[in-house]
Design a protein that fits this description.
Layout (H helix, E strand, L loop, with lengths): L2 E9 L2 E9 L5 E4 L5 E4 L2 H10 L3 E2 L5 H6 L15 H5 L3 E3 L5
Antiparallel strand pairs: 1-2, 1-5, 2-3, 2-6, 3-4
């Protein structure tokens, strides 16, 4: 694998995560919040599918983008776990209430 990228979608006070994995062979895989791994023939195809589903690349967000989504960029951290099975349970995160 070449790299992994985190993508997110904000729905109200809920963050939904997706992980885009890029492989040496040119294929791309998206691990979604349902624990599925979706395979695409290219990074461009995978990115287009994520954008169609209204996800945004975490590494492309700046403070203004995050604020427009109602998020504090400094408090957003991708989920982590020792396996994809354990990670699936963390792919949907409730955000704390705004005061």
């Amino acid at each position: 694998m070449i790299a992994s990228q985190w993508w997110l979608r904000a729905l109200g006070r809920t963050l939904i995560w997706a992980r885009l994995d890029l492989h040496d062979s040119g294929i791309a895989q998206v691990f979604d919040c349902d624990g599925r791994t979706l395979v695409y023939d290219s990074e461009d195809s995978a990115r287009a599918a994520l954008l169609d589903a209204e996800f945004a690349a975490l590494d492309g967000l700046d403070e203004d983008d995050a604020a427009a989504l109602g998020l504090d960029l400094a408090s957003i951290h991708p989920p982590a776990a020792g396996s994809d099975e354990a990670l699936r349970e963390r792919m949907i995160q409730a955000l704390p209430a705004i005061h």
